[in-house]
Design brief:
227 residues, Transferase(Phosphotransferase), domain 1, three-stranded antiparallel sheet, two-stranded antiparallel sheet, disordered C terminus
Amino acid sequence: MEWKDKLTILLHIIFDLQTIHSQNFIHRDLHSGNILQNSLTDANIADLGLLKSVDTPEYSGIYGVLPYIAPEVLIGKPYTSASDIYSFGMIMWEISSGKPSYYDRKHDGILAKEICDGLRPTFANGIPQIYVEFANHCMSANASERPSASELQEYLDSWAKKAFYIKIFKDADININKYESESSNNCVNTMISSKSIARRLIGSEHKNLKNFSEDELNQFCILDNLM
């Protein structure tokens, strides 16, 4: 898949997220399995079951697919619009790589702690640097440093339409090596297949992962069976 198509997918997703946030709601369960694709580049956010108003008192519990849950949520802080932005940053990584987030790791308490300690997925060589920097900005450990959905929409729109950025992404299409190209071309299939991952209920009675022993971390996540 060419970069122009990847950017179009991201624009559709961020448009929906911006609409949700503009109405003072938070999605709270944004991940690639909740992205419906009507065509190659037509994508929309689905599964609004955990949608909450920003004014709704936070209930006890951490819900979602572990790699997409913001680190502040994992240590017991409430979901915010910035938490959704973290999830979007992870989707940016997945679209660039063609692989599920942390596909080679067990989704357990140890991974959750490492995410809280700053672990983030590494971008492959050949990914445009402006893309990498902005995705990492979305996944900042400091929620206040993450861009808003409206800012993301503005940047993505510029990348898709302005000649300077179009050339950057076209050059990336040309320069990417065969292995990375094949991996990237699987991004749509990856997004579709990830729908088979059951939502994970995280053991939310624990409020601070950083104080846990390894044995306690191994017991932290309660994972549903794959659907």
